[in-house]
């Protein structure tokens, strides 16, 4: 099973994303962190012992990076969606299957403050993944920590990640061959939606996070 490192919520501005999560969870997120080489900034919050939620946005005060930003943040369609509302746009795993590396670009070094890691994007020059699949956020990015993990230093709270869900329409089951290859990911579940119940097909596939608020005995959905 692949270990889920963190889940990514994208936002048009970091403040919008932080406010969105705070209104949902009732707790403030971390201070701002900066990814200078990527031209992004983030705030984070722990949602299980070893898993955190990252709110990320393009940093308007940064220089435009030489390479594409992670999580498809340069994509105009992605930004149009994020202007409507912050939403889950991806997830990051610690890979335990060497065969998967053929589906990814080479690892590169990244950092935020004292934290250092290696990161790999999925690529589409293969028979299993295409750009549409990548842009949907369904293909995880890979991470290898070179420093301590930030989640180990995040404040404890009363949240527990129940599940991370990918919801597909029946017509999107073409992606099943990729998910079969990927194998099990910690906390990740798949659900097929009856298309007769769908108002707008453009909203799918849909990534959702279900967090248990132990203190108030409720489930919060992002």
How would you portray this structure in words?
This protein is α+β, with helices and mostly antiparallel strands. The protein has one domain: 2,3-Dihydroxybiphenyl 1,2-Dioxygenase, domain 1, CATH 3.10.180.10. 15% of the residues lie in helices and 35% in strands. It has four helices and twelve strands; from the N terminus they run βαβββαβββαββαβββ. The longest helix is centred in the first third of the chain and has 12 residues, at 14-25.
Tally of alpha and pi helices: 4
Instruction: Supply the CATH class.
Output: Alpha Beta
Q: How many distinct folded domains?
A: 1
Number of separate strands: 12
Which stretches are poorly predicted, pLDDT < 50 over at least 5 residues? Answer: none
**The named CATH superfamily:** 2,3-Dihydroxybiphenyl 1,2-Dioxygenase, domain 1
Mean pLDDT: 92
Shape: globular
Fraction of residues in β-strands: 35-45%
Instruction: Give me the side-by-side strand order of the main sheet.
Output: 2-3-4-1-5-8-7-6
Structural class: alpha+beta
The CATH architecture can be named as Roll
Could you give the order of the helices and strands? Answer: EHEEEHEEEHEEHEEE
Helix content: 10-25%
């Amino acid at each position: 099973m692949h270990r889920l490192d963190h889940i990514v919520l994208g936002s048009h501005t970091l403040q919008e994303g932080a406010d969105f999560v705070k209104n949902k969870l009732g707790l403030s997120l971390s201070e701002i962190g900066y990814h200078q080489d990527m031209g992004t900034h983030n705030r984070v919050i722990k949602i299980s012992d070893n898993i955190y939620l990252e709110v990320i946005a393009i940093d308007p005060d940064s220089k435009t990076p030489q390479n594409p930003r992670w999580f498809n943040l340069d994509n105009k369609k992605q930004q149009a969606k994020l202007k409507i509302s912050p939403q889950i746009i991806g997830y990051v795993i610690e890979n335990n299957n060497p065969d998967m590396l053929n589906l990814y670009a080479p690892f590169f070094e990244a950092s935020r403050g004292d934290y250092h890691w290696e990161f790999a994007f999925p690529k589409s020059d293969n028979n299993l993944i295409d750009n549409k699949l990548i842009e949907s956020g369904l293909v995880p990015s890979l991470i290898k920590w070179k420093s301590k993990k930030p989640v180990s230093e995040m404040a404890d709270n009363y949240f527990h990640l129940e599940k991370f869900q990918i919801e597909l329409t029946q017509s999107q089951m073409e992606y099943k061959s990729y998910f079969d290859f990927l194998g099990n990911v910690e906390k990740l579940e798949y659900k097929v939606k009856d298309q007769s119940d769908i108002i707008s097909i453009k909203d799918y596939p849909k990534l959702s996070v279900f967090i248990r608020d132990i203190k108030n005995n409720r489930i919060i959905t992002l």
